[in-house]
Amino acid sequence: MRFSPLHFLLLAAPFAYANEALDVLEGKIDANSIILPPREIPEGEEAEQERVENIIYLPPEWAPSPLDAVWSRSVLYDNSANPFIQQFAVAGQYDFSASFGKAETIPSGAIPARNTDLDGTRSRRARLGARILAFNNTEIEAMGEFAGDTQYRGVERLKAYTQVSETTGVTLGKFRPNFGTESRIEPSLSPYPYRGTLTNMVAPPAALGVSIHHAGETLDYDIGWFSSDFDPDFGSMDRDGMFNLSVSRTFVERTGDTLARTKWHVDYLHNFDAGRSNPQGYDLAGRRSANGNQLIVQNPAYRHLFSVGVKMDSDSSSFSGDFQFAKGDSTVWGLTLGATHWLIPGTLNLVGRYQYAGTDDPRGIVAAPGNSGDLRYDASPFFAGDEYHSFYLGTNLHLYKDSLLIRNGVEYMILNDEVGNSFNTEAFTWQTGAQLSF
User: Fold this and answer.
1) Between the chain's N and C termini, which has fewer beta carbons within 10 Å?
2) Tell me, what DSSP letter sits at residue 187?
3) If you write DSSP's letter for every residue of 407-433 in order, what string do you get?
4) Which numeric CATH code is attached to 63-437?
5) pLDDT, tens digit (0-9, with 9 covering 90-100), for 55-80
6) Boundaries of every domain in the chain
């Protein structure tokens, strides 16, 4: 009998947190390795901090809640003894948000000041799907997207991951390439209202493809090919496509009685269809910016995309950093830094994020502050320039784990347009919203 990571998880379940074990079964935590018993802390200076490899970091256990019984109903079938279907669960997310503020185009010479109202409320995301564990080695995910403009509504993902050996697995279907720190985070688990501006500009959304994952002794590798035909449903596979290579390594460190996890990644994505397709998934060609009515002649056509980033998690805080570079018909680069800290563990989380993006090309940076955020979701006002800075500070009130929360935060954006026509813009918004996921 071949033992898969799922078998090891079931054997280790009595020693793991009950809620985290359920998260693994539901596909929220990777089960490629199991936690090992703590080792003796060495004497001397190394007792303060010890690097431990080959163990999994489990987040702190959530406190018991009367809502546990409600959320557990999302698992409609659970039977590990069934050789065909071990589990069937429904999944979904609903994100309602509101923004209040304005963007001001700073006067320069003959250019007058111009204000753009950023007030608005909308359903940012509405998704519904299912997760299936089958054949003791396969996880199937299907998710439909119902929010945003009608042109975006469709299949957000439809993929199957099969563990073919203890170190190798294959993913097939429609899913996101491994590119960037934020793209690796499930949208319902992100502490921020929306993904960073540069990530929204350059990181491709879900597309038809295949990816092979191999967990090495020190490094993990992902090699994949994806269709460069973005489509709300599935799209075609008759184009040259995109090649994706990702290398990552995870460290677990012990400080006293606590563990911290650090994951580094280096990603490369090559678009063989640059200039002939629009794999970024948004359509700006022919539209004009809110600052200066600047015309966007064509959608970005990036051929080479790089990302180097890190994600650090501990019991009380987290940190993420990501440097991205994209080159094609235009060239953009930038850095995103984010941090969170539990003010009240399990209840009130303080979150902050800084973003920078730059280019030497006129109108090479496109940002949609306020309630719109992601360019793929709606046709809200956007702003164009060549140097972008953003500062976000807020709190997340977790009413039930990460599944029911209320967000409040303020964001200050600076978008310079020195290469263009000096339509420099500043925006200040207060953002609030509620999110439900299961």
Assistant:
1) N
2) G
3) EEEEEEEEEE-TTTT---EEEEEEEEE
4) 2.40.160.10
5) 677 888 899 999 999 999 999 999 99
6) 63-437
